[in-house]
Amino acid sequence: MVERTIQFDDCLGVEARKEWDVYWAASAHSAPRQNASYGDVESSNNRRAVYVTGRKNGELAFLGLYGLTPFLWRNTYSEAVCLRGPVFDDIEFGKWCLAEVLKFFSNKRVGQVRIGPRWIFPEAEEVESMLFDLGFKVFERHNPLGRRSTGLVSIDRDDEQLLASFSGYTRRQVRLAHRLGIKIIEATSEQQAEEFFVNIKKMYNKKALGSISRRDFFPVFDQVLKNRQVGVLLNAYSDSAYLGGLYLTRDGHAVYAYQLVVTDQANQKHPTLRLAPALFFHGMRWGREHGCSVMDLEGYSADIKGAGQLALVYLYKQGFRPSEVKSLGQYVAVIRPTIWSIYKLGRTWPALMQKPRRAIARLKAFYKKMRTVG
Description:
about 25% strand; 2 domains
């Protein structure tokens, strides 16, 4: 008979954290955001961190780090989010644990639970079916099937072999950066983090990608990137000029190229250089040094023509000659409909109020124009 237990904690003791880290590093379906260090990131963002540990016959076989967002009343939460998790390799046991997770958070007055286990198709098909059986629905906004497309690059080889696996253009760009004396360093100071943040924020605004706040970035830098074990921030310089940077994270098997920024100054100072290949190459080397065998490009499709505004991004990633794969996206289960409905209404009400105001403003502008023409 199989013995199954599950535990929910607001913090991890020293021994429990060591055990968590060992399973996180070994699991074939792990992800950076499920490293225990991200619990401190959740707390820094005013979210309650809950560590979920499942054991099968006494052995750790399931883990999930959930961030709970407070809502209105004391001890009530809009949602519990497990980014790129939970982590499990046994699907049947994972299903039992997730059922217990839904019960626990329902009792804790949580509106919905959002997850995104790291599984690649076709292996992920059984997990996808399991999630639907538990009442989860696809959360992805851009893909109705809930499947993400990305590219994997094998990095388990020496530098020359790795370079030889790239396209000729990408390989030449990496070598050009070296000849130009571009220095790529691992950022450890607040000033170096500030250089990256200021420029990534400018890029977000320029390309209408949404927003990134200090509250989003600096807790990750302080808790994850600064010590360079689970993640790293690579900054590129030409003399004292800041050219750009790449923010990476890893699990036990893969390194993930999370955010890239290249400054206008880089293009002005070295117009023939494309900085991204050199930054990615250094990121692959960093991942390899930490035991990773592949890089996940965090978004890629070989269908460049159908990529829309991401076409240029996929074009430079194509130079690394990745293998395109599909993985599970995010899934959501509403477990306390009343709480979730009130939360959604609270979010949409200001926007609804703005609509009649905008309509009235347009009417006033129209009549003013007509009077002027008359």
